[in-house]
Specification:
47% helix, Rossmann fold, 696 residues, Serine Threonine Protein Phosphatase 5, Tetratricopeptide repeat, alpha/beta, 25 helices, six-stranded mixed beta sheet, four-stranded antiparallel beta sheet, Immunoglobulin-like
Length: 696
């Protein structure tokens, strides 16, 4: 039985695209509607916010001596403070970090001219940050993406006047923040010196929109970077981050406003560079009370009075041991090593809490240190005493780990008893607290697990294994934002941590941040090429972002590497992966064998979808059949199979495939009548039955 292909296509209109992934409506945060930032935050909350953060250090078309050292690190620091609850308060999925080779001119154009305009609404807040080179050519200024060609600056750079057009008119938002840390970045905004760049900058000024432009330098100045600022940053970005961490909160109301940040950064950068670099801001077109950072727990440091010139000082932090993590007011500042002090200028005068930590040792602090205005104070962290545990506590830990590693609920219960005993004997036993968190997590007692993990991190803030484990548990229960913060801390401190990169790629995938998930997956693969899991997430990322050609080989590679008996899966799956490998951030009690089967289903399902989208119905049908042989109660698998069968009919003109397609569509309706796919299935069934009746 057959009909012409054109006739089939006109009647069926079936199966030509992948089934849509249904996403729940995301609630909007409340928008700012008042001028008083403290009042607005107290009554309404932080506005919905979007950010593009760009950092480029290496430029393949420039000589290496022209490369930058810290631009990408600067971008990471901005990203960290933006997504922090004690800082920018941006949702992680609303901040795109584009760094290194990803920061091409075309990618900048896409993010600025397509992504941001498609997301931001008139009541929102938008921030754009760029760290890298800037060039002036033929009277115009350009930001230099990764692929800038010095022989064709106009053709390969991103013109600042175009940036002004996009920010001023293309992006709809109430509050817009533009921060650039680049050589000659002052060309983006008018200065007080009368430089001849007014025509370039005029496009930035939108009198109907609050626009805050903060740039690293004046038109004819350069931007500086070095180790003197936080162990390695651009001087401008260092002070932007310190300001957003709370140092710019002059009045102590737990809010950093645009005016406060501009004054703080300008003052501190001029002082640090001996007036060689002067940040500029356009004071005519932005609301000075625009909210840039918010500290729900209260003011970050003590407020005072007077001018900024007299209210900041510098801490120089030295250490007697390698690898000491330094915290200032509970915020990580970096690692200190002997002979390589950490310099932290621009700190508000007054009392600050300092702490130095190193795994296995008693910490130095927390203690108060006074920062004096206009002065430099050197403190030395003394990590002296190895943390010793009593033999009884060490024995309880050893038994607890042994029970935990055996698996099963009864052993997890015994592990909890032993680990609680270890902590009762030694309250500062961070390793016991971490394993206690793992045991409670295995028992699905997540509040207790949180308490234990947070205790482990409070005891040893540099305990990367505890942070990674905590991130895995947070992902299991769907708290992806905090998981990203914990895992990002780990990957920035230990770039070779395979497990952290793997969990980060899963977390970013769940947040639909596919490009960043792809980066994390590729790093995990680089670290462990024989590990199967990263290939599966990588394939899903490519498929869901419309790149099936790239997805197919990664699904196949996953299946090749996971071609073992399900009984051996226990040796393959690492701690913290069981729940989210199956549930995608949902609570699950699946066993290891179930996980192995679910991942096989996921891979064959993805292969089926991609082959169908690429008009290859035969392999699509084969993969769907394989997946259904493992789970015939999955409605979306039946939906995909039905679409593949209709595609096969369309390709061959043979109607004999349609009755089976109807049966699969009917199964979708039977299994889950509430799915959008079930509603589509009912429509398809009617069309197919009409077609078959007419062909008899």
């Amino acid at each position: 039985m057959s009909l012409p292909i054109r006739s089939l296509a006109a009647i069926l209109l079936l199966g030509l695209t992948a089934a849509a992934q249904q996403q729940p409506d995301r609630k909007r945060d409340l928008n700012l509607v008042e001028d008083d930032p403290a009042k607005v935050v107290a009554e309404s909350g932080v506005p919905r916010s979007y950010a593009l953060v760009v950092g480029v250090s290496d430029y393949p078309n420039l000589p290496e001596e022209k490369w930058l050292q810290y631009a990408e690190r600067d971008a990471e620091a901005i990203y960290r403070i933006l997504i922090s609850p004690e800082g920018g308060n941006f949702r992680t999925e609303n901040v795109h970090l584009v760094a290194g080779s990803k920061a091409t001119r075309e990618n900048l154009r896409y993010e600025l001219e397509e992504w941001l305009p498609s997301q931001a609404q008139p009541g929102d807040r938008v921030l754009i940050y760029f760290a890298g080179h800037g060039f002036v050519y033929d009277g115009k200024a350009y930001l230099a993406g990764y692929d800038i060609d010095p022989e064709d600056i106009a053709g390969t750079g991103y013109a600042m006047d175009r940036l002004g057009e996009v920010v001023g008119g293309g992006i709809q938002a109430k509050d817009k923040i533009l921060i650039t840390d680049a050589c000659h970045s002052g060309a983006i905004t008018p200065s007080n010196e009368g430089e001849s760049n007014a025509a370039i900058n005029s496009s930035l000024l939108d009198l109907n929109t609050s626009l805050f432009v903060l740039t690293a330098s004046r038109d004819r100045e350069s931007s500086y970077e070095g180790e003197d600022w936080g162990g390695g940053h651009g001087v401008f970005t260092y002070y932007v981050v310190k300001g957003l961490e709370g140092e710019a909160d002059w009045n102590g109301d737990a809010i950093v406003t645009a005016d406060e940040l501009a004054e703080y950064v300008r003052t501190e950068v001029r002082r640090a560079t001996r007036t060689l670099q002067t940040p500029t801001s356009d004071r005519g077109s932005f609301n000075p009370n625009m909210l840039l950072a918010y500290f729900p727990s209260g003011a970050a440091v003590s407020a005072g009075s007077g001018q900024p010139e007299a209210r900041t000082g510098t801490l120089v932090v030295e250490s007697n041991k390698e690898g000491v993590e330094f915290f200032l007011d509970d915020q990580p500042q970096g690692v200190v090593n002997p002979g390589k002090p950490l310099t932290l200028p621009g700190l508000m005068a007054g009392a600050h809490t300092v702490k130095g930590v190193k795994m296995g040792y008693e910490p130095d602090g927390p203690r108060e240190e006074i920062v004096y205005p206009g002065q430099t104070k050197t403190i030395k962290l003394k990590i002296l005493y190895p943390r010793r545990q009593s033999p009884e506590a060490a024995k309880a830990l050893e038994k607890g780990i042994e029970f935990y590693q055996r698996g099963e609920e009864k052993n997890y219960r015994k592990a909890v008893d032993e680990l609680e005993l270890a902590l009762s004997l030694e309250p500062d036993y961070s390793r016991a607290a971490m394993y206690l968190g793992r045991a409670y997590s295995a028992l699905f007692e997540y509040e207790e697990a949180k308490r234990a993990f947070e205790k482990a991190i409070a005891i040893d803030p540099d305990y990367l294994e505890a942070r990674a484990s905590y991130g895995g548990m947070l992902l299991d229960i769907g708290e992806a934002d905090e998981a990203i913060r914990q895992l990002t801390f780990v990957t920035q401190r230990d770039r070779d941590n395979f497990l952290a990169h793997l969990m980060l790629t899963h977390t970013l995938h769940i947040k639909d941040l596919y490009d960043r998930s792809i980066e994390a997956a590729n790093r995990a693969i680089e670290l462990e090429p024989a590990a199967a899991e990263p290939y599966l997430v990588l394939a899903d990322d490519y498929r869901l972002s419309g790149r099936c050609e790239q997805a197919l080989p990664n699904y196949s590679r996953y299946l090749e590497l996971s071609d073992f008996e399900s009984s051996t899966a226990e040796k393959v799956f690492s701690y913290g992966l069981r729940g989210f490998l199956v549930g995608g951030g949902k609570k699950t009690r699946a066993g290891t064998k179930d996980i192995w089967e679910q991942l096989q289903i996921r891979a064959h399902h993805g292969l089926g979808d991609c082959e169908r989208i690429l008009a290859n119905p035969d392999p699509a049908i084969a993969h769907y059949r394989k997946a259904l042989s493992l789970d015939d109660e999955d409605a979306l698998l039946h939906f995909g199979m039905a679409l593949a069968l209709t595609r096969k009919t369309e390709v061959t003109g043979d109607l004999t495939y349609l009755p089976e397609a109807v049966r699969h569509f009917q199964t979708v309706v039977r299994l889950n009548d509430a799915l959008d796919e079930a509603e589509q299935a009912r429509g398809y069934i009617g069309k197919i039955e009409t077609l078959l009746a007419g062909a008899r």
